[in-house]
Structure formats: structure tokens, C-alpha cells
Amino acid sequence: MTAISKHPSRSAGGGIGNAGAIDVRDIGSFHIGGRVSTLRGMPGRRRVSTPNGAVHPVDPNGEIVSGQMYVQYVRLARPRSRHPMLLWHGGGMCGTNWETTPDGRPGWQMYFLRAGFDVLVSDAVERGRSGWAPWPEIYEGAPYFRTAKEAWEETFRFGPAGSWHPEPARRRMHPGLRFPAEHMEAFMSQFVPRWSCNDERTQAAYDLLVATQDHRAILLTHSQGGQFGLRAALHAPARVAAVVSLEPSGAPDPLAGDARMLRGVPHLFVWGDHLAQHRFWAESMPRVRRWHEALLDAGVDSTWLDLPSRGIHGNSHALMADDNSDAIAETVLRWLDRRSLRAPEAASR
Amino acid sequence: MTAISKHPSRSAGGGIGNAGAIDVRDIGSFHIGGRVSTLRGMPGRRRVSTPNGAVHPVDPNGEIVSGQMYVQYVRLARPRSRHPMLLWHGGGMCGTNWETTPDGRPGWQMYFLRAGFDVLVSDAVERGRSGWAPWPEIYEGAPYFRTAKEAWEETFRFGPAGSWHPEPARRRMHPGLRFPAEHMEAFMSQFVPRWSCNDERTQAAYDLLVATQDHRAILLTHSQGGQFGLRAALHAPARVAAVVSLEPSGAPDPLAGDARMLRGVPHLFVWGDHLAQHRFWAESMPRVRRWHEALLDAGVDSTWLDLPSRGIHGNSHALMADDNSDAIAETVLRWLDRRSLRAPEAASR
User: Dihedral of the CA atoms B273, B276, B280, B281 (nearest 10)?
Assistant: First the structure.
């Protein structure tokens, strides 16, 4: 297998833009990781599985699988890179974050397919198509359901504290907000329940995914996914080609992780606007900054991309859904290209 | 838009087989249906969202969306049919059923893409990427978790009663079983929790999906999805081109639904082996048979395809994952072709 294709795909010329057909070799999925557990001692139940259907006695006891992670792949007929791009979503979300944006534009899954990468979108353990397991029998605690107010005012920074209102017309937002706020209900439809007890299970599944790729992977993560991506690189630096972290909510502790192991793994951190006005981010961002500085001190190729300082204002935490999502993707693509992680376009174009 | 493509895609010749690249115009997703609800009166919580991350106070009260359904589409550059194919999974499962089989073969999503259809795979309300809502605040009851024993011995009919064993070597199966039983743990990884209180929410989302397609849809359903598909056709017969039901677990009551409305909608029912030996199926299948007979009495084009009576033995309830899944898909494709739901291949081939 070679990274240089003699038959360039008909993706967008130069990787710019997000339109045009692609030649797809295969679309499919698998679950990775997980283990079989046995549920015991629970009373029997009864269930009618479909209207006008038979009554079905249910014994809840027995073997189930938990801790597995769903991964969907789209493989190109003629990829321009040998490096699979792994897209890891943030907390309370699943892989849908990388698909069509809430206002109906193509997402980053299609962007990077059109740019010539095989793309693997996963749903973290406990989220989306990974399924989830009962508590307290398997998980140690109860789930959290994200509210619109929390998303609007804190995690996603669409508006300042007190700006959320159930009636769309009465919501306030940050001036120049780039998130398509009129599609908030579509964005809320992407929320999925989350737990806070599954970090080890999730990290194990991600590490296994990285370990089983044929070539060094590019990890492109968002928010909670950032911590998992940064740690996956630390756990297996020889298996990772690059780590791109969109507003990671956490990072390894420089006192605990040896950044020197990552000298062969370029890192990019991307940040939007209004971080200092939101307590969660005001507290979280400096912890990540410390890891970036530890990477630099260790001689790692690490880039801290603060969009407002480059004159790009108004980005929310949903960088891949904001109205300039294609432009941000292009910035990421150019950063990857400068590190030769994609073959140049064929001269015949 | 025309159903006849002047540029046939490079899908498998004649629709037979499940290999080869496809020209894809777009891959994306959306959520359909659902409503905003407000959670009230719950005590506050605290959460650490990522190791070494900030402590995050959580107010569980506020607006959330529930009842939404996730739909992922793959649209071809040059489809051979104007009719979108909607794949609706069964109970305790999600859209992964239509992707790669548990033993790693291409699934029916790819089969029908290669045959020239745009394919939409949905996760029913409460399943997979549709997310789920808290109970008792939104849902009326608690979820069910499918056990391996229930799947093996009853719903999926891999072996007779008493044949499941946690140790793979000690499991017994029906003679000639076509399900790749050595991959049972991979199949178990696809299971997701289910409720029994969401049929109305689910039907509403499916009905809306059918109503919003540009052209009459082909509904291809499995198990619990069967009831939803048969009802969706009854609710909007002018919007449905055909209904293909793989072992539906239920069907409309002929005394309640007017089958004459479906005279323009061909129906196909497909059944595997060993139904009479499993109580759930021995009870469920005759209810579906009554609907098929009502369709025939009303002059509807309805086909009852009992595979064993055609000399095809050993199929489980997981028809789309059994080792002859491509051959069954081809049978479905031929049935659709006889009803002119796909353009003939271009003569130039």
C-alpha cells in the first residue's frame, strides 16, 4: 500500500471545500473492546414487544456485553493518505457530531473523506450505537442528561450566563456567534445521556482502536474526546501520526505523563472564542495549556491555535458545527499537509 | 430527476454480489421528530467530566429533546432507483444490524447501495444514535437489556431451549444453522437497551420519515421494525413503493386496518427456519400470516416467502447476518425488480 495515489479521487480540488462525489470502497462498522458480564438475582418481567404481539416473558438474568465501542468506517477506493483519520466526539454526544451540521451543511466526516482520508467515526463507550449497560449492576453510577441551558450557557458558549430561554426569540447569544443558533433544537437532538464512571472503559476501547489500525492514525478529537486522544497518543506514540484536539476539556498531567515520548507525534490544539467568560472553560483551558507547554518543553511539535488571536471571532465550543466549520477544517488540513500526512495531488489535475 | 441513470454506477453487475466501489454523492444524517420537554424538581449534582478536569456543577432541570429519531443516509452519485430504501431494524437493536455482519462480511446497507439504491438507515426512537430520555420523567417504564440466552434460544433461534451456554464450546445450535455462531459475542455487542412504552413515539417518527421523502420509499424492516413498517404503509399508502418485512414480530389487526388501501403497495414477507419450535415465533407468525391473508383478500400484491419450503434451510431470525445473507438480499432485489422499482442496467454494460 502506498500513500500516493496514481488515481486521484474526485474529491474537492486541493482539499478546499466540502462538495462533490467520492469513490467509496466500503462502508461498514464493528464493535471493539468490551467484555461479557453475567447479571444475576433480578426478578422476572413480562413484555409485549409489538402492538397486537405475543406476551414475552423476560428473564433479565444472564450474559450481556458491556464496554464495547462502535466504530463506523468509510474507506475510499483511492485514499490520498495511508493514515486513517479517527474522529472522536465529546461528552454527552456521539459520532453524529461529525456528520451533517445542525443547519444541514456537510460535516467534517465528509470534509476529510473529500480530502482523501479514510474516516472512522466512533461512538464512545456508553454512547450512541455502542449501547450502554445497567446500573448499579455494571456501571457504578447513574447517567446525566444534558439540558439546553447547560449546553447554551456553559459547555458550548452560545451565550453568557442567564441568556438561555425556552422560547427561541428570547434567547440571547454572544455577539457574532458563529453557531447556527436558530437550529438549537436540531443540535439538542444530538445529545445523548452520559455517565462519569466510564473513563477507563472508554480509554481502553480507544487504545485498542489505535492499536489495531493498519497504519499510524490521525486522532481528531473534540472536548471530552480530547483527553482520550492525548492519552491514547501517550500510551502508543508509535501508533499515532498526529493528534488534533478541538477544545479538549482535559489533558494529561505533565507531572504524570512523560511528554518526551511524543517527539514523533505532532499536536494541534484549536480554540474558539469567549473562553474566559465561562467558568468551566476558564478552569479547563489552563490545564490543557500546561500539557501543550510540557510538549513544547519536551521538543514535541505542538501548535496552539487560538482563533480569536488570529482575527477569527465568534466561534463556540461546537467548532465543527459553527458556520465557518469548513474553514476550520481547512486550517486543520493545511496543518496536516505541512507535516506530509497526505499525498500531494497528482500533477495531472 | 429520473430513475434511469445514463451513467450506471460501478456497483456489482446485475445487483448480484456485495463487492466493488460505489460513487457516493453524500453521506450524512439528521434527526426527525421529537419534542422539547422540561425536567423540573430534581436535585443538583456535581460531576468531573474528564480525569484531571474541572468539577462541573450539574443542574439536571431544564429543557431536553425526546422522541427524536436518527437517520443516516448514503446517497449515490447515480442511483438506479428514485425510491429511497429505508432500513428499519428490530427490537433491542439499532441500525448497526444493516452494516457489516458479526463475522465481518458486508451487510445489506452496502448490498443495496451496490444495487443502486440510496439507503437510509435509522435508529428507532430510544435506540443508538437517537439517544434516550429519563424515566419516569419522560418514558413511562424501565428499559430491558437483552441477554445472550434469550437471543440464542428464543428471539434469534440459534438453538433450541436449553442450548445456550456461557462457554462457546458448550453451546448447541440448530443443525445446519446459518448464523455464524462463533461470532456470538460480536453480535451481542450490537444489542442496545429497549423500552416497551415507546411504540407511539417510534411510529410517529417513522411516519414522519416516510412523509418527508422526495419519492415513494421502499421500507425494508426486520422483526419489531416490521410492525412499524406495515403500519407506516397503512398510514400513507401513497408514500410507499413497497414493504419488505423480514420476520416481522407483529402486524396490523385485519379487523382494525383496512387492507384495501394498500392495493398499490406490494408486500413481501420473508421467513427463516425452526419457527414452530420457538414459542414466541409460534405465537407471533400466525398473527402476521393473518395480515398477509387480509392483504391477499383485499387484492394486494403480497408474497409469503417461507425459505425452508423453497429448500433453503437453517436460517435464523438474523436473516441479514446469516451466512446466506447476500443470497437472501438478492431474492429481495429480484422481487423488487419484478415490480420495476429499479431501472434496468444500461445496455452499454
Answer: 50
pLDDT digits (tens, 9 = 90+) for A142-182: 999 999 999 999 999 999 999 999 999 999 999 999 999 99
Give CA–CA dist B80/A129, Å, rounded.
30
Nearest Cα residue in chain B from A148: B63
CATH of the domain at B119: 3.40.50.1820
pTM for the model stands at 0.94
Q: How far apart are CA A158 and CA A281, in angstroms?
A: 13
Residue with cell 500510551: A235
A-interface mutation test, from B26, B129, B247, most A Cβ less than 10 A away: B129
> B107 lies in a domain?
yes
CA-to-CA distance for B12 and B22, rounded, in angstroms?
9
Which residues is B31 bridged to in the sheet?
B70
User: B172: exposed, middle or buried (C-beta count within 10 Å: 0-12, 13-18, 19+)?
Assistant: middle
Residues 57 through 86 of chain B touching chain A, CB cutoff 8 Å: 58-65, 68, 70, 72, 74, 77
Determine the Cα–Cα distance for residues A205 and B96; give it in Å rounded to an integer.
18
Q: Interface pTM (ipTM) of the complex?
A: 0.93
Residue with C-alpha cell 441568556? Answer: A163
Distance CA A301, CA A292 (A): 10
Residues B141 and B154: their CA atoms lie apart, in Å, by 23
Give residues 155 to 214 of A whose Cβ lies within 8 Å of B.
166, 185-186, 188-193, 196, 199
| B125 in Cβ contact with B65 (< 8 Å) | no
A85-88 vs A217-222, strand pairing mode: parallel
B102 in contact with A, Cβ within 8 Å: no
Determine the structural domain holding residue A40 and report its residue range: 13-338
pLDDT per residue over A102-120, tens digit each? 999 999 999 999 999 999 9
CB B270 within 8 A of CB B244: yes
In the numeric block, which cell numbers belong to residue A219? 486522532
Residues B237/B262, Cβ–Cβ less than 8 Å? yes
**DSSP state letters, B274-318:** -GGGSHHHHHHHHHHHHHHHHHHHTT--EEEEEGGGGT-----S-
**B120: helix, coil or strand?**
strand
Instruction: Name the residue with cell 484536539.
Output: A245
Backbone region of residue A157 per phi and psi (left: phi > 0; alpha: psi in -120 to 50; beta: other values): left
Task: Count the Cβ atoms, other than its own, within 10 Å of residue A2.
Answer: 7
Give chain A's domain count: 1
Q: Is residue B6 part of a domain?
A: no
Question: What does DSSP assign to residue A103?
Answer: T
Distance CA B258, CA A32 (A): 46
Q: How many CA within 13 A on the CB side of residue B165?
A: 8
In a domain, B27, yes or no: no
The reply to whether A3 falls in a domain is: no
